[in-house]
Amino acid sequence: MRLGVAAIFKNECDYILEWIAYHQLIGVDRFFIADNVSDDGSSQLLEALDFLGVINRVYFPRVGETGPQAPAYNYILRQYGGEVDLLCFIDADEFIANTNGLSLKENLSAFHAMEDAGALALNWRNFGSSGHKFKGEGLVIERFKQASRKDHPANCHIKTILKPGMVQRMNIHECILESGRYYSPNLEPAVFEKGGACEPKTREVLYDRIRVNHYVVKSRQEHMLKKESKGSGAGSADRGKGEAYFKAHDLNDEFDDALTRYTGDVARGVEVLRSQLAMESPYLCFGKAHVNVMPKLIGGWAVSDLDKPLKVRLLINGKEHLVDVDRERPDLVRKGISGQLYCGFNFRPGRDMTVHDKVEAHIYGSSVKANVIYSPELGS
User: Fold this and answer.
1) Nearest C-alpha neighbor of 121 from the set 188, 176, 190
2) pLDDT tier at 380 (50, 70, 90 boundaries)?
3) Closest C-alpha among 277, 268, 273, 326 to residue 306
4) Share of the chain above pLDDT 90, in %
5) pLDDT given for residue 233 in this prediction
6) Sorting pLDDT into bands at 50, 70 and 90, what band is 181?
7) What torsion, rounded to 10 degrees, do the Cα atoms 297, 35, 21, 27 define?
8) Residue 85: in which H helix or E strand, if any?
9) Judging by beta carbons within 10 Å of its beta carbon (0-12, 13-18, 19+), is residue 372 exposed, middle or buried?
10) Beta-strand pair 359-363/371-374
11) How far apart are the C-alpha atoms of 185 and 124, rounded to whole Å?
């Protein structure tokens, strides 16, 4: 049974490695993450993790006023759904949690075997700030141990694990099934708030076998600096999540340390990922890159202190193209610019470029920006 997790991330740099390490630990095989164009380093980190093969990253900027979350989910469902048996859609502040001592795949095996089961409805358990004003040290799963009561209405919200071949489309919380039906983790048919076949909320909260821990606000500092003005992936980029949002979600009614038993293993997993990023990816490398924009060809070179083949990320009028750096450039070796012969690249855009085309570039998986030069042949 191949299990995948899908998400869309924006400005989550401080939490990405923990989220991946935790879900790797509990049995997730594949990660499909839509990059919603961050300004805190998240995009470069996701690129580097994709470079390493840890995740599949999908460039997914916001277009117009439409929230990018549901379109990103459905792109991932169509593009990658056939590569896994089960696919779970969650956010960067959500952690799949086993509640009965069994492993995640042990808990999912019976659902996977049920022919009429198309999707599984996992209820939230919302966690508050645990009284923390500042970010502090430690992992999310060890810093926040105060949660809402089980019967809090917010916990009726669900997240979904689905069988891709039985799904028509994915919404934010729930999916529309082509065949089969929704089940709860207790393997009984799910009962939704308004009695429908699929809805964002169930009628009651069930934590049998599996739930989703939702670390929605974290500390007050993290909320104010990271979440308050980030907008909504489900809706408007201008949606504010200020004082009222924090107070409504700062739920600290009951002590819950169920995930702290994973702390040591997750911390070690984070260190493994950091080591891979430092030693095997361009993420922390120094480098240089140069791009020439010509009428029928975009070419150039890229070098770094990583002794591995590189990619260049070209952004042409907002559309992303990843180009292998795989062409011989003996001239750069002779000049001492590169110690590797294969440091050049060419990309044919498919139409004539003009001076009005906007081209940006950097070494994929790093913050090294390319110097972009427009050829005089492009005209005025």
Assistant:
1) 190
2) low
3) 277
4) 87
5) 47
6) very high
7) -100
8) none
9) middle
10) unpaired
11) 12
Residue closest to 28 by CA, chosen among 47, 42, 7: 7
Say if CB 282 and CB 368 are below 8 A apart. yes
Sheet (strand 319-324) strand order: 319-324, 311-316, 359-363
Q: Which residues pair with 6 in a beta bridge?
A: 32, 89
The pLDDT of residue 255 is above 90 = yes
Instruction: Tell me the helices (H) and strands (E) count for the chain, helix number first.
Output: 9, 21
Helix (H, G, I), strand (E, B) or coil at 189: strand
- Pairing between strand 287-293 and 86-89? unpaired
Model confidence over 112-153: pLDDT tens digits? 999 999 999 999 999 999 999 989 899 999 999 999 999 999
Claim: this prediction has a pTM higher than 0.85: yes
Q: Is 168 helix (H, G, I), strand (E, B) or coil?
A: strand
pLDDT over 50 at 39, yes or no: yes
> Which tokens is 56 given?
């599949």
- Spatial distance between the Cα atoms of 181 and 282, rounded to a whole number of angstroms: 45
Full DSSP string of 225-291? IIITTS--SSS-TT----HHHHHHH---SEE--TTGGGHHHHHHHHHHHHHHHHHHSSTT--EEEEE
Structure tokens at 327: 């062409």
Residue 180's region, left for phi above 0, alpha for psi from -120 to 50, else beta, is: left
Please compute the mean of the pLDDT values over residues 104-111 and round it to a whole number: 97
User: Which residues, including other chains, have CB under 8 Å from residue 124's CB and lie 6 or more apart?
Assistant: 94, 154, 155, 156, 157, 158, 159, 211, 212, 213, 214
Burial of 88 (0-12, 13-18, 19+ CB in 10 A): buried
